[in-house]
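Internal tracking record. Fields below are filled automatically when a chain is submitted to the structure queue. Please do not edit lines marked as system-generated. If the sequence contains nonstandard residues, flag them in the REMARKS field before resubmitting.
Queue: standard
Priority: normal
Entity type: single polypeptide chain
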Amino acid sequence: MYKTIVVGTDGSATAGQAVSQAAALARATGAALHIVHAFRPISAWAGVAPDGSAAALSVGLAEDTERNARAVLDRAAAAVREEGIEVETHLCGGEAAEALLDTAEQVNADLLVVGNRGMTGARRFILGSVPNKVSHHCPCSLLIAYTTG
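SYSTEM-GENERATED OUTPUT FOLLOWS
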């Protein structure tokens, strides 16, 4: 049925539910599972303050941001591996929907799993959401997992 499944996480409990559902599908179908986490990278500032601290602080923030993003991804992967499921991880700088869509294309996914968080209320019409954006551009089948109940 499915050979390659992609799922995203932002480290939240609802994203964890989507990852769990994707892992269950991967186990049931023997599919490869890919977990994606997108983060907004911070560029290091090229200038230096008179005391040299501004550049060092900016570089430190950039490193902390990526380290924290990697930790979110590693926690999700560890939870899946504890269930005996092999997983590949993808840490992507940028916007979440784009990272999911790009990864799904790169790994030739059969299924992309996202949680429904962010698809309720008037905000979904004004700001958009990851599930909404993904649903309009998904290169494969899409499962919007119910995660807000």
